[in-house]
Amino acid sequence: MNGTAMRIALFTHSVNPRGGVVHTLELGRALHEAGQDVTIFAPSVGGAPMFRASPCRVVLAPAAAHGNDTVMMVQTRIDALKAALLEEGASGFDVLHAQDGIGGNALADLREAGSIRGFVRTVHHLDAFDNPRLSAWQRRAYADADTVLCVSDTWTRKMRDEFGVTASTVNNGVDVARFRDVGSTDVCTEFGLSGKPMVLAVGGIEERKNTLQLLEAFALLRQTHAEAQLVLAGGASLLDHDTYTQRFIARAAQVGLRIGKHEPIVVTGPLEDAAIPALLQRADVVSMMSLREGFGLVVLEALAAGTPVVVSQIEPFTGYLDERVCCWAQPDDATSIGDALRRALHERGGVDFERAVPELLARFSWRESARRHIALYANHVQRIMQPLGA
What we know:
It is a single chain. The chain is an alpha/beta fold and 390 residues long. The protein folds into 2 domains: 7-173 and 365-382, Rossmann fold (3-Layer(aba) Sandwich), CATH 3.40.50; 176-363, Glycogen Phosphorylase B (Rossmann fold, 3-Layer(aba) Sandwich). Helix content is 41%, strand content 16%. It is built from 14 helices and 13 strands. Strands 3-2-1-4-5-6-7 form a 7-stranded parallel sheet. The protein starts with 6 loop residues before the first strand and ends in a 6-residue tail after the last helix.
């Protein structure tokens, strides 16, 4: 690109605060600050705005409501992104980069139709779908991409070894100032968050987040910390987690833990953007007991807020964390999780917030992520612009 700013289009699946959407917005900001011309595309139902402001241009693609039909939801968002990109002039962008399967299929459709030369896809993680159409969409979104990126070495290896796809690793990042310079918020008062201690998990109630096992561990913790409170924050997912949520509610009742404001378990649902940094600072410990993650950005965010974290001792976490910066637990063992929560509550789990945590956070900056993306984008553009047969 000879040092000239690229026109970059980033595609995300939603305007809601999910990890992939946060990644898109933060990457867009870092690319913008590096002098690139960035436009972010996102489907929007009913004109809903992007949950966080961006210095980049944001195109909201009008998408129809879909009820509880996941297949129809995905199709309408694919169609919305295609229409929005064509209206904006697809050929005017140097790089078209999808962060998920919805954007990936929109670009795959346009590539097949000859409207674009190619596209980049970041695989954060892959899900197991019972519906064959969802599975096919998921595969096509990376299989048809010209350049595949992953946010951890774990997933780069998985893509190579399990799916035969060559990918490059690009780091996630964390805006340390955002989680340290927290303004006032009424979230604690609004939900009656007065637990001593307060255990926080971000992402709502999901099987992938292992929320039922965390519930079992929390019940054990309450045996020694009778005033403890479990806060399940966020959860603006496009997928249907109702069945798993009902299991969670039923099990909470069986172990005698009430759910609601001022109760031992508080489920906030989606929150305003400023609430998550405030909760991360207010919490005594943050739990990240996921069974499957692409990276697990909340871990870095919690550490940036100065809060100890209990983390599943599995990949990708074992690839960038160690016992100096977190308390490990086995995600399939409630006793292990409960013991790790207790360790984290005792002298902050022995986490080295003086040296090891700052060193970790310094390794994962959005500026460095943008630099890596720009280099990979340049290679991608050179490759897709090669004449056929070259």
